[in-house]
Amino acid sequence: MQDQPSAIEILAAVADFLRQHAMPQLQGHTAFHARVAANALDIVRRELEIAPQANAEEHQRLRTLLGADGSLEALNEALCEQLENGTLTAQNPDLVAHLRRTTMTKLAIDQPAYSAYRRALAEDKAATSE
Amino acid sequence: MGTDADPFAGLVGKAIAGAIPGATGIANLKRLSGGANKETWSFDVRCDGAQGKNGLLPLVLRRAPRGVDVGRSNLLSLEREAAVVQAAAGAGLPAPRVRYVLQPDDGLGHGFFMDRIEGETLARRILRDEAFAAARPLLAGQCGAILARLHRLTASAVPGLRVAPILTELGNVRTLYRSYRHPHPVFALAFRWLAERAPAYAQTDLVLVHGDFRHGNLIIGPEGVRAVLDWEGAHIGDPMEDLAWISVNSWRFGNIDQPVGGFGQREDLFAGYEAAGGRTVDRDRVRFWEVYGTLRWGIGCMGMYATFASGADRSVERAAIGRRASETEIDLLALITGKGWA
């Protein structure tokens, strides 16, 4: 067990420092790159928050979908092979649901402001409230 | 020349003195931002006589990074790119006038000088600033008309361009994807989807395709499109490819319901294309190329990471683009399994 602050708290503090204190003192390319750096720290923070559970769920879905076991990476490679050779197709609703869920998790970590992610979230919300 | 202290500026001035009749020196040399694969330098040439405004001729130097042409497989050399720009401008397209192609004796490496056209290339300004409010509704139609004129040029316009029908393009992108050795099941699905739908066509259907016709490569003024830049991806291919690439969601910059560059509807693009003499738009084929384009950009994001991982560019910016591959995954899923083509 590690001591406090947590990694997530440290990352949030550093990103806040870059945005609130460093960036106003910087100009041009350096200011731009400081913003990119702060955004990159946000990705790491969201990954620490979201990925442990989401990866475990993805792993379980892959075992079910493929009827096989292996590492997360190995199962993803097996899935790619079955998609490219046509064994699994977009006609399979479990497959489509898995791909969508996995991609939505990536976006929740990487690019939560992306237009198509916001739209997909809104669609999911509308579907569950129906 | 007042620039002798800077050896690079001295070389530019020397090349210009030989290239531009009446040139007496250069001023205001500065590197422009943008363009990860190429250097772009802005400067003014001081001229005797009639050239330029107030005796200043605004030019740009487009150059390989530090002059070294790394020869990426699908990108043109600077010399051939200059030939394409000249052919496009000669055919009446809005492309900058090429003034001079660098020679080995110039000591500046590979590149060329061209006219600097004032205007905006940043998508966020073009899509949000009041200055472009009147232009925005016109842009999709203008883009269609420009592409129609471009697509009248065929393989004979610029000899030696790669001929790249869809199966060749798809094969190249797939080889690139596999070289990155990271599984993307959504990309695998897209490869299969594309392979099953690859259109067949005759060699005679292929034309000069820009290959990167989108925001960043279009100079826009308050009245509309002023120039098309960055011809390094030009090739001989399916004209529908150019009509699709500009609608890849990543180039809409948040305006998801304005498919064409975030400023227009597909039907306006197609109407502009057909009205200017372009061939009949095959909407299924444009959709096919939009899937291809989305996949191509996703694999481009993987390539950004590969460049970072190789040590060639250790910037946070380069690394972060690797985490944009997921954007194209959600777009591909919408295009392939949902209602992403509306």
Automatic annotation (TrEMBL), chain A:
Residues 24-114 form the DUF6285 domain. Pfam families: DUF6285. This is DUF6285 domain-containing protein.
